[in-house]
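Project standup — Tuesday

K.O.: blocked on the structure for the chain from last sprint. Re-posting the sequence here as requested.
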Amino acid sequence: MNPLVSIIMGSTSDLPIMEEAAKLFDEFEIPFEIHALSAHRTPDLVADFAKGAFNRGVRVIIAGAGGAAHLPGVVAAMTICPVIGVPIKSSNSVDGWDSILSILQMPSGIPVATVALNGARNAGILAVQILATGDATLQNKLVGFKNDLAKKVVKANSTLKEVSFKFKTN
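H.V.: unblocked you, prediction finished:
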């Protein structure tokens, strides 16, 4: 089985964030791979990975990075696969803003879709939505997923009806 999605990160210290995307792919039964690749420490490995990803069957790349966060952009420069960047608040981060801006502010011609700080689950959902554009089975799974989200909100409102406050009117 070939991976449709590749999850990459600058180091394994990012795994607690990035595994949220992996868990989502398990839920949707989408084959994926996970790699630690550093744009700064292993640039040749990053280049080999990015240039070969599409030919190996990868259709979406999720790249998590903290600090200067060059990994998503470097990979996007060398592949035709859509790249989703996950800015990570790392130990040397400036409240995550360095990562956010490094991933968000890409030059024209090298787009990287960017999700929220530590937002690997949303990156996974976006990857599923991209893959679903050509897959009816995934489209149906996404409809069910979105319906479940709506049910949770409806249930939350019924729970809130039971909450009592002196001046609450509903």
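K.O.: great, moving the ticket to review. The beta strands are 5-9, 32-36, 60-66, 83-88, 113-114. Residues 20 and 90 are 16 Å apart (CA to CA).
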